[in-house]
């Protein structure tokens, strides 16, 4: 018997972690569609924030249309140093300009995922790290707005929430579609079980609830 012929009665067991995640919720269509919608919302919000920045530059001293009171005030947030943290010499650049660039990339990546185009593992990893960086940046701006500037920008909050959902969908796609980390690793097996048992739904809902609770606990009396 040659080595290429199978041995009768012998089977090769596949580890549970190596079984593909099944179901519409784990496929590229759903995960990347959610990512596309969230990224598109974030991109639109970035355009709006950029337009408001230009409006302030053209009409100094005027209040923006989304100013409601002393706390819910886009103008207060836009006039803070945190709104322009990138500087080159004497020039500063609004964060919203970089948001347009970043979210355009995430929209493109989501479209690539929906088209089921195969990408290298290093590309999928870099994409996830980029999403993590965008989330960390959004949360830094959120905490600065909440606890340092003491003002809330409705558009900034929309950007923060859309970036959060974008990262949730990207993380799901990275595990269930891109297969990272590897299924033979403990981290990979644990993450696949996490999504297979739908623990992510509970965590994601709790995640959003915590963010909303933070806002309400800090400024609930003013918002209502």
UniProtKB/TrEMBL annotation:
GO molecular function: oxidoreductase activity; quinone binding
Superkingdom of the source species: Bacteria
Main location: membrane
Segments forming domain Vitamin K epoxide reductase: 28-174
Membrane-topology annotation of the record: Multi-pass membrane protein
Pfam family, one: VKOR
Keyword Transmembrane (UniProt): yes
GO cellular component: membrane
Region (Disordered): 1-20
Cellular compartments annotated: Membrane
Keywords: Disulfide bond, Membrane, Oxidoreductase, Quinone, Redox-active center, Transmembrane, Transmembrane helix
Record's compositionally biased regions (Polar residues): 1-17
Listed InterPro entries: VKOR (IPR012932), VKOR_Actinobacteria (IPR041714), VKOR_sf (IPR038354)
TM ranges: 30-51, 96-115, 122-142, 148-170, 201-221
Signal peptide (residue range): none
Similarity comment: family membership: Belongs to the VKOR family.
Protein name: Vitamin K epoxide reductase family protein
Protein source organism: Bifidobacterium vespertilionis
């Amino acid at each position: 018997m040659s080595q290429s012929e199978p041995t009768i009665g012998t089977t090769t067991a596949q580890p549970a972690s190596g079984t593909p995640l099944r179901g519409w919720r784990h496929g590229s269509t759903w995960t990347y569609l959610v990512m596309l919608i969230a990224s598109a919302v974030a991109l639109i919000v970035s355009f709006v924030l950029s337009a408001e920045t230009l409006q302030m530059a053209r009409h100094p001293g005027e209040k923006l249309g989304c100013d409601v009171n002393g706390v819910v005030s886009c103008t207060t947030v836009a006039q803070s140093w945190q709104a322009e943290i990138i500087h080159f010499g004497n020039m500063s650049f609004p964060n919203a300009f970089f948001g347009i660039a970043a979210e355009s990339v995430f929209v493109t990546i989501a479209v690539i995922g929906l088209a089921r185009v195969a990408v290298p593992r290093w590309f999928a990893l870099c994409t996830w790290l980029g999403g993590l960086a965008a989330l960390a940046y959004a949360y830094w701006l959120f905490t600065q707005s909440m606890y340092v500037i003491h003002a809330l920008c409705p558009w900034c909050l929309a950007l923060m929430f859309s970036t959060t959902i974008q990262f949730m969908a990207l993380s799901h796609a990275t595990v269930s579609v891109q297969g990272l980390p590897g299924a033979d690793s403990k981290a990979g097996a644990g993450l696949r079980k996490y999504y297979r048992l739908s623990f992510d739904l509970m965590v994601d809902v709790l995640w959003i609830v915590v963010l909303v609770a933070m806002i309400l606990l800090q400024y609930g009396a003013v918002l209502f």
